[in-house]
Amino acid sequence: MVAGLLPRLASDVVGDPAAAKAAPVAAEVDPSPDRGPGRGADASPDAPPETPPAGSPAPPERPGKRGTVYLTFDDGPDPRWTPQVLDVLRRHGVHAVFFEVGQNVAAYPDLVARVRAEGHLIGNHTWSHAKLTDLRSRAIRDQLDRTDAALGGRARCVRPPYGATDPRVADVIGARGQRTVLWDVDPEDWAKPGTDRIVRRVLAQVHDGALVLMHDGGGDRSQTVAALEQVITRLQERGYGFGLLDC
Ligand SMILES: [Zn+2]
Fold first, then answer.
1. Quick one: CA dihedral 208, 93, 81, 104, positive or negative?
2. Residue 64: its pLDDT value, please?
3. What residues act catalytically?
4. Per-residue pLDDT for 228 more than 50?
5. Does 98 score more than 50 pLDDT?
6. What is the pLDDT of residues 140-177, one digit of tens each?
7. Which pLDDT does position 219 carry in this prediction?
């Protein structure tokens, strides 16, 4: 049901470089605009939407009729942006999985508590936003162990930063009883392409079971916060409901 649980081709999982460049606890460090993930043919930022443009007649649909969308947020918790993301989600009654960086978890335990108290789930996004494919297996386990310890228990889901995984990384994660969770809708909000573009990209890529990647940390997320409001509203208008990954 959840496509993003399966490791995907390496060429298909680049993305999420935002926090890599940012010191995990320093929220205001951003990638320079030309440090895009280089997705080649996949890079077209504004593929045509899968549904008729706004204004086309569309039958009214009840929420969820078109399918379920799963929201995920990476690289937090962040004292400025995570509360704003939580506010939007709470206003709409939508829950999400937050893949948090261990260093940030240790720095902002009150934010972690709020995320949980409002019904969201937390996954392990490594201690220092490490590229796991570059690490020895022992170092991978250390990244995950430290984060799990900060979270107070072993997270059920792990999202490797940058989506960088391979059979060895996947085995290390799986041997711990954890699941690798990637994504299949990436509006590249980390690059701050503009609120409208973030919204359009999600709407263009969305499908039943879509696993959407956005960021509540790693830099200025004001566009993400603004886009999230519209993403939720417009997906509901299109007949999508929101689900919570089993993490
Ligand atoms: Zn990340």
1. negative
2. 75
3. 74, 215
4. yes
5. yes
6. 999 999 999 999 999 999 999 999 999 999 999 999 99
7. 97
Beta-carbon contacts of 85 under 8 Å, excluding residues fewer than 6 positions away, are 73, 76, 216, 221, 224, 225, 228
How far, in Å, is the centroid of ligand 1 from the Cα of 7? Answer: 16
* Cα gap 235→209, rounded to integer Å: 13
What would the two tokens of residue 58 be? 């569309």
Q: How many CB atoms lie within 10 A of CB 180?
A: 21
Quote the pTM value: 0.77
Residue 122 reports pLDDT greater than 70: yes
Ligand 1 center from residue 62 Cα (angstroms) = 33
Question: What number of other Cβ atoms are within 10 A of residue 43's Cβ?
Answer: 10
Please give the distance, rounded to the nearest whole angstrom, from the Cα atom of residue 236 to the centre of ligand 1.
27
Q: 60 CA to middle of ligand 1, Å?
A: 37
Identify the structural domains of the chain with CATH numbers, from first to last.
3-21+74-243 (3.20.20.370)
